[in-house]
Design brief:
17% strand; 4-stranded parallel β-sheet; alpha/beta; Rossmann fold; Dehydroquinate synthase-like, alpha domain; 364 residues; 3-stranded mixed β-sheet
Length: 364
């Protein structure tokens, strides 16, 4: 049942473990990388649900855990919380030869990985993702960072984890909205590079989201395997291929910025709408069959994800506001905003040659 995927990056290589029951076994898996005090960074929600069980497994492996509990929510990915976390990590006694554990969703993983990457010029860390979104996306690949008012993830470093432990059992404790939002990143993975996987998801997504073991393990493991392969070929996003993973993110991040990184729009929901917009823009530009864009929208609706800007509650962000947010996007190169578009499902491509009027029309 459990699967192991290796991210082959030479001396920075690591394994991703996927399957049920891994939280209890995390101590054994983490022990080879740990030395001295072991800070475990989490948030209050995850601590309530999983921390005691996780610490019990670490204790059985003889590890000296030091829990650090932060506030939940996207607002924690900030300079203010980064400073607080670095203070807590320093107080824990962890040194450059030690290990820091991130136990939580994407916010905890991104913030903890960033803190680990800059504290004492770099301390190793482990990812123990507890949301679907973090298991299939943010825990893999070494991107870490925080948000600033100008945009999402604009401050950060590449810092690969030593190990990723994705226990699919913990997904059963997620609120339905969070679980479904995380599926936005799963759908994106199939849409960008694997038409067969996308077709499998069209048939099996409901089983996975209802927690059927074989379906959810395959869903997570295959998405991780796809991402690992891309990261191996373009770890630092220098050759263009890793940028494919940003399908839906140029639009999605702008939508998150325009909605104030609030509960109005979760990250996976932004990616879902962004992916639908990317396919719609591809159709407008004449490079994608309309039926493929329609399949993407139909699948989003089938699983309960938003597929249009009008699906966001509250006041609709204007095209001007969204374009202004895009102007700060870290994917700008040589003064041009880089888009990930598609020739069809499973056939994404990267381009900086997109007519601004077409983008505005897509946002209208």
């Amino acid at each position: 049942m459990n699967q192991r995927i290796t991210v082959a990056l030479g001396p920075r290589s690591y394994d991703i473990h996927v399957g049920p029951g891994l939280l209890e076994d995390a101590g054994r898996l983490i022990a080879p990388f740990a030395r001295g005090p072991l800070p475990v960074v989490t948030d209050a929600n995850v601590a309530y649900l999983h921390l005691d069980r996780f610490l019990g497994g670490l204790e059985q492996a003889g590890l000296q855990a030091r829990p650090i509990v932060l506030d939940p929510g996207e607002g924690t990915k900030s300079f203010t919380w980064l400073e607080r976390l670095i203070g807590e990590l320093t107080a824990s006694g962890v040194d450059r030869g030690g290990l820091i554990v991130a136990l939580g969703g994407g916010v905890i993983g991104d913030l903890t990985g960033f803190a680990a990457g800059i504290l004492k010029r770099g301390i190793a860390f482990a990812q123990v993702p507890t949301t679907l979104l973090s298991q299939v996306d943010s825990s893999v690949g070494g991107k870490t960072g925080i948000n600033i008012p100008e945009g999402k993830n604009l401050v950060g470093v590449f810092h690969q984890p030593k190990i990723v432990i994705a226990d699919t059992d913990v997904l059963g404790t997620l609120p339905k909205r969070d679980l479904v939002a995380g599926y936005g990143e799963v759908m994106k993975t199939g849409a960008l590079g694997d038409a067969e996987y996308f077709a499998w998801l069209e048939t099996n997504a409901a089983r996975a989201l209802h927690g059927e073991h074989d379906a959810i393990v395959h869903t997570v493991a295959h998405a991780c395997r796809m991402k690992a392969a891309i990261v191996e070929r373009d770890e630092l996003e220098q050759h263009g291929e890793r940028a494919l993973l940003n399908l839906g993110h140029t639009f999605g991040h702008a939508l998150e910025t325009a909605t104030g990184f609030s509960d109005r729009l979760l990250h996976g929901e932004g990616v879902a709408i962004g992916t639908a917009l990317a396919f719609a823009l591809s159709v407008k530009l004449g490079v994608c069959p309309p039926e493929d864009a329609a399949r993407v929208v139909a699948h989003l609706k089938a699983v309960g994800l938003p597929s249009a800007i009008s699906d966001i509650p509250g006041e609709r962000p204007s095209p001007d506001v969204l374009l202004a947010a895009m102007a700060h996007d870290k994917k700008i190169k040589d003064g041009k905003l880089i888009f990930v578009l598609a020739h069809g499902i499973g056939q994404a491509f990267v381009t900086g040659d997109v007519d601004a009027a077409a983008v505005r029309e897509a946002l209208g």
